[in-house]
Amino acid sequence: MAQHLRIRCVVKTDRTGAHERIHSVGGVKPDGSHWKLTQDKAISDIEDGTCVFYIERPAGHRIDVNRRSERWRQQVPQQVPQNDGG
Question: Which residues, other chains included, contact 71 with Cβ-Cβ below 8 Å and sequence gap of 6+?
Fold first, then answer.
């Protein structure tokens, strides 16, 4: 079963390309411990089903984060809107 992790911080690079801007993401696990993963590790964890990442904007409104393929075959995390039936 995948671990659900809320992204609370994003470490960016000084690059301007969409596939180069994010260095790593991090947050706090339900047990209170902190976590931080590089973009490559986060993408790998999404693809193999190890983790499901999400953000909350506004508070209480969960948005899952997935990955997408750029035309150059670069993969970057992206937000996936939740269908809440309304």
Answer: none
Q: d(Cα 31, Cα 48) in Å, to the nearest integer? A: 23
**Number of neighbours of residue 12 by Cβ within 10 angstroms:** 10
- Residue 16 to residue 26: CA distance in whole angstroms: 21
DSSP assignment of the chain: -PEEEE--EEEE-S--STTTSEEEEEEE-TTS-EEEEEHHHHHHHHHTTSEEEEEESSTT-EEEEEEEE-TTS-EEEEEE------
At 44-77, the pLDDT tens digits run: 999 999 999 999 888 789 998 887 655 444 455 5
> Whole-angstrom Cα distance, residue 63 to residue 45?
17
